[in-house]
Design goal:
Helix content: 25-40%
CATH topology of the largest domain: FAD/NAD(P)-binding domain
CATH class of the largest domain: Alpha Beta
Strand content: 15-25%
Shape: globular
CATH superfamily of the largest domain: FAD/NAD(P)-binding domain
Largest sheet: 7 strands, mixed
Radius of gyration: 24 Å
Length: 478
């Protein structure tokens, strides 16, 4: 007779492992299936985010930023350094140590919370059965009262740029270069392309980013996007819009990329090429024909607002379902589903999910953009504040960017907050909290912010919504 659990989670990434832990905390007998295997044959938890995504990329971004500061910005503080060099191998070693510490930490959390970890590839069968195939090919079938699918996503490959060993790589390969490429090409000016391009540009690569779309960061508020593009160009990133890649060729260790832009066919030569044009939901071999679970027209698992599939007791969360492909969104969906399985009326506010790009300056946002509100015909008002007027930003020698607050013209309720600037990834949490509690711009304006802090820029932007900013000239009231 098959072993039975209250909950089986398929996938041990930030959606799956968080869901499993929360289910166990709620008293449910829980197992988590994960197929990722280390070189030594052991199970690796954490999924893409911890192993080849969010965490390693941030480690490299931090190291490369410190190197760039030492090379170019220390002198303004009176710090004199000579002959600064970067050991790529040490940088990678540090990155790998951080990843190992975090992934093994999840295993410890599983033990502490009594989550059963099952090593193998999971497949959903009919009747809420889960088939697990080990690396050796052994097959075991488990039964569950509830199943949570959290299999994540995989990088999209494009026919004009097939991946090759060492020369044309995806985002995973770009985290493991053993030296700084002299010339680096990046296909895709999205979050991943900008972050990885920034890492290697700081270390000395000549970076060209090819983006097929005619707008830069179209999902981001365009005032913020334009300011970001200006800063990236200052840093030496060569970002070419309306550039559609048509082919690639690797010859004698050199990658030749052909692409079309408004001037016709162009050619780019580089030592390495990173393909990061987006990610697709990972459902390969996941669903048996009789599982009853449906995919939508884009290949995502179809779920309702509470992540319930059409099969009662079967849920799906994270990158494999609709919505932004973000680790924090996956984790919160996992907690929501765990609570609902236990009978609690949990829900998730999809209007308050922050987005972040960890470049320098950082870009972060929550809520609606000015372009979205215009398209919807909603009356709104805007307040902005530049970091160049912030005393704390001046002290940190990091004055690029601004904070933008958008509020309803009728109710003053905050509809969106957008930031490009220092520590935007941390500041955006204040915006999320404000919007989660239905804050008005006046609420933020009446809140006491510590001085001197970068967060005062948010305070001033909220004041500026009604023309009341103190530390920058206000627009004249009509």
């Amino acid at each position: 007779m098959a072993e039975k659990y209250d909950v089986i989670v398929i996938g041990g990434g930030p959606g799956g492992y968080v869901a499993a832990i929360r289910c166990a905390q709620l008293g449910l007998n829980t197992a988590c299936v994960e197929k990722w295997t280390s070189d030594s044959g052991k199970q690796v938890l954490g999924g893409t985010c911890l192993n080849v995504g969010c965490i390693p990329s941030k480690a490299l971004l931090e190291s490369s930023h410190k190197y760039e500061e030492a090379c170019h910005d220390f002198d303004i503080h009176g710090i004199e350094v000579k002959d600064v060099s970067m050991s790529v191998s040490k940088m990678m070693e540090r990155k790998n140590t951080i990843v190992k510490n975090l992934t093994t930490g999840i295993g410890s959390l599983f033990k502490a919370n009594k989550v059963t970890s099952i090593h193998g590839t999971g497949k959903l069968l009919g009747g809420k059965q889960v088939e697990v195939t080990s690396a050796k090919g052994d097959v075991t079938v488990y039964e569950a009262e509830n199943v949570i699918i959290a299999t994540g996503s995989t990088p999209i490959e494009i026919p004009p740029a097939p991946l090759t060993e060492g020369h044309i790589v995806d985002s995973t390969g770009a985290l493991d270069f053993d030296e700084v490429p002299k010339r680096l090409g990046v296909i895709g000016a999205g979050v991943i392309g900008l972050e990885l391009g920034s890492v290697w540009a700081r270390l000395g690569s000549e970076v060209v980013v090819l983006e097929a779309q005619d707008a830069f960061l179209p999902a981001v508020d365009q005032q913020i996007a334009k300011e970001s593009l200006k800063q990236f160009k200052k840093q030496g990133l060569d970002i070419r819009l309306k550039a559609r890649v048509t082919g690639t060729e690797v010859k004698r260790g050199l990658v030749t990329v052909t692409y079309e832009d408004t001037k016709g066919e162009q050619e780019l030569k580089c030592d390495k090429l990173i393909v990061c044009v987006g990610r697709a939901p990972y459902t390969e071999g996941l669903l048996s024909p009789d599982s009853g679970v449906n995919l939508d027209e884009r290949g995502f698992i179809f779920v309702d607002d509470n992540c319930q599939t059409v099969v009662p007791g079967v849920y799906a969360i994270g990158d494999v379902v609709r919505g932004p492909m973000l680790a924090h969104k996956a984790s919160e969906e996992g907690i929501m589903v765990a609570e609902r399985i236990q009978g609690h009326k949990a829900a998730m506010n999809y209007d308050c999910i922050p987005g972040v790009i960890y470049t320098h300056p950082e870009i972060a946002w929550v809520g609606k953009t000015e372009e979205q509100l215009k398209a919807e015909g909603e009356a709104y008002k805007v307040g902005t504040f530049p970091f160049v007027a912030s005393g704390r930003a001046m002290a940190a020698n990091s004055t690029a960017g601004l904070v933008k607050v958008i509020a309803s013209e009728k109710t003053d309720r905050v509809l969106g907050i957008h930031i490009v600037g220092p520590q935007a990834s941390e500041m955006i949490a204040q915006a999320v909290i404000a919007m989660e509690f239905g804050s008005s711009a006046e609420d933020l304006a009446l809140t006491v912010f510590a001085h001197p802090t970068l967060s005062e820029a948010l305070h001033e932007a909220a004041l500026a919504v009604d023309g009341n900013a103190i530390h920058v000239a206000n627009r004249r009231k009509k």
